[in-house]
Amino acid sequence: MLDVNVNFHYLFPVAQSVKLYPLFGLTMSNWMFDMHDLDVDWDGDHVHVDDGGNHNEFRIGANLGAGAEFALGRNWAMNVEFRYQLVDDFDQGVINFGAAYRF
């Protein structure tokens, strides 16, 4: 799976070292299913076994979520965020953890 995201957020300070932010953006997902993978349609319409080698699916969708950034001294910060990816029939929730160094 390849997942590329471009997100926008605006930081709202809620304490001296804590900032909260809403998140929205775009996601591009490419899923590759190998031979004999089971592709289940959750609506119950069909169950399909792809037995012809590799099968690729490419989708573009939207990201919606929120996060928090925590200052760790003068130059370092860490963040945690949750985003929900709305991608046709590949919707999913994602939790991210990150670190940043400000020059």
Description:
Keywords: Signal. This is Outer membrane protein beta-barrel domain-containing protein. It holds the Pfam family OMP_b-brl. Residues 2-103 form the Outer membrane protein beta-barrel domain. The chain is mainly β and 103 residues long. The chain has one domain: Porin, CATH 2.40.160.20. It is built from no helices and 8 strands. It has strands at 2-9, 12-15, 18-33, 37-40, 47-50, 55-72, 76-86, 92-101. The strands form 2 sheets. Strands 1, 2, 3, 6, 7 and 8 form a 6-stranded antiparallel beta sheet that branches. A two-stranded antiparallel sheet has the order 4-5. The protein is elongated, with a radius of gyration of 18 Å. The mean pLDDT is 85.
Fold topology:
Blueprint lengths: L1 E8 L2 E4 L2 E16 L3 E4 L6 E4 L4 E18 L3 E11 L5 E10 L2
Antiparallel strand pairs: 1-3, 2-3, 3-6, 4-5, 6-7, 7-8
Terminus-to-terminus distance: 33 Å
* Secondary-structure-derived class: mainly beta
Number of domains: 1
Based on Cα principal axes, name the global outline.
elongated
State Rg. 18 Å
CATH architecture identity: Beta Barrel
Question: Which sheet architecture does the biggest sheet show?
Answer: 6 strands, antiparallel
Reported by name, the CATH topology is Porin
Helix content: under 10%
| Poorly predicted runs of 5 or more residues | none
N-to-C SSE string, H for helix and E for strand:
EEEEEEEE
Strand content: over 45%
Task: Kindly report the average pLDDT value.
Answer: 85
Number of helices: 0
Number of strands: 8
CATH class: Mainly Beta
Keywords: Signal
Organism: Phocaeicola vulgatus (Bacteroides vulgatus)
Protein name: Outer membrane protein beta-barrel domain-containing protein
Domain Outer membrane protein beta-barrel: 2-103
